[in-house]
Amino acid sequence: MLEISNLNVYYGQSRILQDVSLSVPDGKVACLLGRNGVGKTTLLKAVMGVLKTRSGSLTYAGENITGWLPYKRARAGIGYVPQGRGIFPYLSVAENLVLGLEATKEGRSDALDEMYQQFPILSTFAKRMAGTLSGGQQQQLALARALISKPKLLVLDEPTEGIQPSIVLEIEELLISLKKKSNLTTLLVEQYLDFALAVADYCYIMEHGAIVLQGEPEMMTQDQTREYITV
Ligand SMILES: Nc1ncnc2c1ncn2[C@@H]1O[C@H](COP(=O)(O)OP(=O)(O)OP(=O)(O)O)[C@@H](O)[C@H]1O
Ligand SMILES: [Mg+2]
Hints:
Bound molecules: adenosine-5'-triphosphate, magnesium ion
Strand order of the largest sheet: 6-7-8-3-9-10
CATH class of the largest domain: Alpha Beta
Low-confidence stretches: none
Strand content: 25-35%
Helix content: 25-40%
Largest sheet: 6 strands, mixed
CATH superfamily of the largest domain: P-loop containing nucleotide triphosphate hydrolases
Mean pLDDT: 91
Distance between the termini: 32 Å
Shape: globular
């Protein structure tokens, strides 16, 4: 579904991503782990087209999307939950969700209700300004806004950041059920190891902008893994 090959990304003169190759097969969850500042968000921004790549290629659903603008990637079915949520604080919860639908021009009338069922707290606060929700509620809103357009590939940047354990479990169950029911493919960036191992089919570990370790989640509990991700 997503194939990242030998990607190099720079900020000015500094090389942030170094020949990164990673693949997310159809209907699977791939997780990218690594310490602060290693380049995880940079990679997701490159996947979304928010950052330009210096060299390398991105293939999505069989198409070379390396030069595509972000909106075209969204329309093609790539949903994104950025780190820090990126919701619109001065719009209501409902308006934020409707904007998620705009990304694909799907316009299904039952889409909002579906999201309210999945995230009851958003239904309760539908008319409230999104900026007045708590951090964890905003995180759920960001996730719902990405899911409402029924993406084929979901790109998540630390969805558990600042979320209480019970909601983390709900998100875990949601991602697993979306994979089973809707064959959703997910590229997940995480620092919360237990959550990552519970949802991932395959894991990558990044250090200084390069993939240094990869494998099935079963092998990721080894000491070597912890060495790369614990601070
Ligand atoms: N706009 C920018 N200009 C210059 N350098 C940047 C910019 N954004 C990020 N960087 C640098 O690029 C490196 C990778 O940052 P990135 O945000 O990808 O890390 P990360 O792995 O997502 O970290 P975290 O776990 O803290 O979110 C860091 O050293 C960061 O300081
Ligand atoms: Mg980040």
